[in-house]
Amino acid sequence: MNKFYKTIGFNTVVQIGGKFLSAGLGLFNLGLLTHYLGQSGYGQFALIIAYLGIFSVFSDLGFQLTLTRELARDSVHQEKLLGSYFILKLILVALSVGVALLLLPFFPYSAFLKIAIVIACLGVGLGNINSFGTAIFQSRLRLDLVTYIDVLGKIVTTAFIVLFAAQNFGLYGIVNTILLGNLAASLVTVYLLKNDLHFNRINWPAAKNLLLQSLPVGLILLLSSLYFKVDTIILSFFRGAGEVGIYSLAYKVIENALVLWGFYMATVYPLLAQGKVKNIFRQSFYLALVACLVLVGGGELFAPVIVNLLGGQQFGPSILALRILILALPLLVIDNLFYNNFIANRWSKTPLLALCAALVFNVTINILTIPHWGYLAAAVSTVLTEVIVLTIYAFGFSRSQRH
Q: Which range marks the domain in which residue 346 is found?
């Protein structure tokens, strides 16, 4: 058997086991948070994550994917690449946190919620720094280590959620569990990469090269982050934290369903960049299609059970939102496959066009419909937006194959 398929198989098996555990912990945490915080409180927590998630894109700007690709292709200049990336990463994380805090006073949120966002900034920023290790492990096809670290972080977070909820520490306490989980993951990452952290200065030519290559990817990630999270922000403006909670519970289920695919793609991405494995794109496409059809069928059937288990009766309206959102699951997975293939092969024009169109459409339709139909409008707009993205991706991919 080809050694590349063995590597993919090993990484995928480890990740499947780890991500089943991680996803299970994530769903368990979701159930804890919804039952402890309630509909409005969970809506506030989800809004914190969405708000900081938009600015988190500035902490990377595409450097992780670019570094993974360059490390996979060039093993000679690793020290220059790693040193430059690490220092740039610290600067960008500080920038992302700073911008989030500077703009916070202009958002129409309560003082209580704004304080919670400030508290969460440190934990989210630390989590963004951790992607430095992920890029190195991914380039070396050691996604098993990424999985172990992710599971550890989730276990620590879960333990403190249970503890803080039992002590009734409220939303502020729950927000601090993000910091504690990411701190545990950071300590392990630093230990595993101690031999790669001996650099102490930036190599400006290498940094400039990384920056120039990453900017198109960074713009793509910014657009992607905006159109994925802007519906939650718009929903909070017009309908309040309660509906944000209803919508976010359904959306969180979809995110957990996408976790396994994300780790499979993390394994495949360096191979797409190297171009050494033939037909990997086609085989991944068929795998995505079959897996998603199974998930969609099961999700539509068991949506009431899933929502009642995770949120209880007060989250009953999330059932319809989940049934709508799950129709976007195959689109999200296939769009992600196209996206990674474009980036691995340095075809950034198609993703830029697709995500620009998606953002304009998503913002427009949400502003027009959310005031009247709330979270249901947000769910429908998500499905329609992914249809637009897939159409543009498929057209761009077809054109690339003819040249």
A: 3-401
Distance CA 173, CA 96 (A): 23
| pLDDT tens, residue by residue, 117-146 | 999 998 888 888 877 777 677 666 676 787
The Cα 104–Cα 98 span in angstroms is 10
Q: For the segment 68-121, what is each residue's pLDDT rounded down to a tens digit?
A: 666 666 554 566 666 667 777 788 888 889 999 999 999 989 999 999 999 999
Cβ 207 vs Cβ 147: under 8 Å: no
Rg (CA), the chain: 20
Structural domains of the chain, count: 1
Q: Is 344 in contact with 276 (CB distance < 8 Å)?
A: no
CA distance 248 to 322: 10
CB 366 within 8 A of CB 378: yes
**167 to each of 112, 160, 163, 374, how far by Cα in Å?**
20, 10, 6, 34
